[in-house]
Write a structure and sequence with these properties.
mainly beta, Ubiquitin-like (UB roll)
């Protein structure tokens, strides 16, 4: 199945939850915000959120600065 992560198409083997995909892509212990198909997904829901072919995942990390 193909999903898009931050604009890059990626092939993943289903079935996967959002948390699995994040871990496999190096985001396991990072403080991030995630949107799935344009909708914010709270961190507590990552393990319960199933991915489907064609999903669009946007991952952003907070930045410090002024």
């Amino acid at each position: 199945m193909i999903v898009t992560i931050n604009g890059q198409q990626t092939t993943i083997n289903p079935p996967l939850k959002l948390s699995d995909c994040l871990a496999k892509n190096g985001y396991r212990d990072m403080t991030i915000a995630v949107a799935l198909n344009g909708t914010f997904v709270p961190k507590g829901e990552h393990a319960n959120t199933a991915l489907n072919d064609g999903d669009d995942i946007e991952i952003v990390a907070p930045m410090q600065g002024g």
